[in-house]
Description:
mainly alpha
Amino acid sequence: MRYRTVMPRKSVNQEESKIVNLRMQPALVAEIDDLVARKGYMSRSEFILSAVRYYMDRVAYREEYLQRMQERGMIKEIPPPPENDED
C-alpha cells in the first residue's frame, strides 16, 4: 500500500500574503513576545502585522490632514515628518 504525503491547505490569507524576513534585537523580540501573550495575539506575525497597519494608518492620516490644511490655506507647505515621531 502506498501512502501519499498530503500537504496542509493554505488559508485564504496565506495564499494572498508574502513572507517578509525581519531581524530584530533579542530584547525587542522579548517585548513582542510579552505583548503577544498579554494581549492575546495568535503569534508574533499577527502582532507585527497589526503594528505595521497601525503605523501606516497613522502616516496616511497625517498626510491627509496636512493636505487639507494646505488646501484651506492654513499652511503653505507640508512639513516633513518629524525624525523622532513618538507622540
